[in-house]
Amino acid sequence: MKYLLSHKIFSVALSVLVLFSTFSFTVEKHYCGNRLVDVAIFSEAQGCGMEMPSKMTMKKSCCKDTVDIIEGQDELQSVTFDDLDFESQTFITAYVYSFSLLYESLPKQIIPHKDYSPPNLVYDIQLLDDVFLI
What is the pTM of this model? Predict the structure, then answer.
């Protein structure tokens, strides 16, 4: 039981690892002076309201935005059946063929009297005549 649970936990952890290794996202941070004001993932960071308008570009603004781009893996290695050598192809083919024969369905059972209806009993003669085998 504990091996089954640890196996499930391990397989879920590996699948999450593959998912996040191929996942790309950005982290935007807004600083006002040396103080971090806002952090946003998947969206733009909101400002503190002290940004300088575009007309006043002569003065240096105390606010700055930083963007960290975390790129995921773009290429995953995929192996097709044709890329394998002959011995591996033969082993996989034999393995699949041998285990596919294990799951064949059972033959249908033939019931010869399936459509036969029994005759209607009008009277129970033994009960009427009070004749019982002892």
Answer: 0.41
